[in-house]
Amino acid sequence: MNFVYIFLLLFIGVTILFIKLSHFLSIPSLKEIYSNEIKKLSEQLWENSIVETLNNILEWQETNIRYWMERAADSLIYYVIAAMLYGVVLLFMVLLLIIGFEIIINDIMVLILWVISAVVALLVLISLPSKYSQYLNNISMLLLVSIFTLYIFSENLIIISIISGLWVLILTLIVKYLFQCNGNFVSAIAMLHDTLCYDIKVSKILKYKKAVCRDYAKLTIALLSNLFPNYNLYLVTHPMHVAAAIEINGKIYVIDQRLPIREINTWIKIQSTNHRILGRGYKIYKIIRKKNGFDSQKENIEKYIDKNLLNEEYIKPNWDNIIKEIYEVMKSKKPNFEFELKNYAIWYDINDAIIKESLCRYIKNILRKEFCGNCSKIKDIELKQKGKDIVVHLQFKLG
């Protein structure tokens, strides 16, 4: 069979494998939850009520932690290519066994390659699924596998180009991180390792102030476990995304990187709207506390969702137009202004203190980003329900 076709089959296989591995949950350890860093941050974010504290957690993350694009995009490319190379090694080992053991014994080079294949195969198999990434991001092993693959496909330009591209990606990240680490090579390599590592420690998230969704979720679970040890905590997922959640009075509130906090049905609707292809296959996992750590237990998500509600339309506000209208009103020095958020009352229950406070902060932050110092001219923000809509009433300071 043409090796190019084999390679394409491997590509499909490892891509499916990667999507499966994306459901591997990153849960903080007891040591991380009760670390001095998390305790200090928990004390810093704590206020008198759960309403304020939950919103503080999300607002702090939105303000202080940036999305780690290299860890999201570059690591995805790295994982797929690395998994393909490991697949080539596994395939070579299997083919040699099929062809015959005599070839292995009579050719020293083939024998060495077969031993390498066997070792790599063993490491990958015993590490699936939770620690698979530890071997994929092991640079020294990947270098060995790359050389091995080039030996097999020494005349295949496609394979050579892909392997070269992989190492260009790695070298580019090293150079980029050297600048970020002020030329410290050791720190740059450590940052490269953390970029490619599937699961990193909470301390690293706080150190870099950068994260991807699974890191945000892990940090949030660590904070919630510290602040609210008696509440049920969850991780909600769909392919390529995960977020933390907490159950309060029978409601599941999702805390996902940025304000506002959303009830689980609202979160699912928005995810489905924003990610029409990937935003399916929702799952929920309850975090189980044990004496020696934490584990997760998959639950039936159907009991938490309202299918009739999910059939309702979600309408994104046109914030550009709203900002322009507010600017004109502020210039004219009128005392107040109202605008409507269409269908928002369906998705955001402003009779719920957590949702109302979160939505108010969300709107304030949008206005603060747009108007900067002029935001101080906004005296008060009031939310009212009008049928399916939410009316936002702004009161301005005059003079």
Strands of the widest sheet, in order across it, are 6-5-4-3-7-8
Overall pLDDT metric? 82
Question: What is the straight-line distance between the termini?
Answer: 81 Å
Radius of gyration: 26 Å
Total beta-strand segments: 11
> Percent of residues in beta strands?
15-25%
Overall form: elongated
Can you write the helix and strand succession as a string? HHHHEHHHHHHHHEHEEEEHEEHHEHHEE
| Count of helix runs | 18
Major pleated sheet: 6 strands, antiparallel
Domain module tally: 3
Q: Which percent range fits the helix content?
A: 55-70%
Unreliable stretches (pLDDT < 50, length at least 5) are 127-136
Q: Which structural class matches the secondary elements?
A: alpha+beta
Protein name: Transglutaminase-like protease
InterPro entries: Transglutaminase-like_domain (IPR007562)
Organism: Methanocaldococcus jannaschii
Transmembrane segments: 6-25, 76-105, 111-128, 135-153, 159-179
Key attributes of the depicted protein:
single chain, 399 residues, alpha+beta, Ribosomal Protein S8, Chain: A, domain 1, six-stranded antiparallel sheet, 18 helices, elongated, Transglutaminase-like protease, transmembrane
What does this structure look like?
This protein has 399 residues and is an alpha+beta fold. The protein has 3 domains: 3-12 and 71-193, no CATH class; 34-49 and 209-310, no CATH class; 319-396, Ribosomal Protein S8, Chain: A, domain 1 (2-Layer Sandwich). It is 59% helix and 16% strand. A 6-stranded antiparallel beta sheet has the order 6-5-4-3-7-8. It has a 3-stranded antiparallel beta sheet with strand order 9-11-10. A two-stranded parallel ribbon has the order 1-2. Strand 3 (233-238) and strand 4 (241-248) form a beta hairpin. Helix 5 crosses helix 7 and helix 5 (69-99) runs antiparallel to helix 10. The protein is elongated, with a radius of gyration of 26 Å.
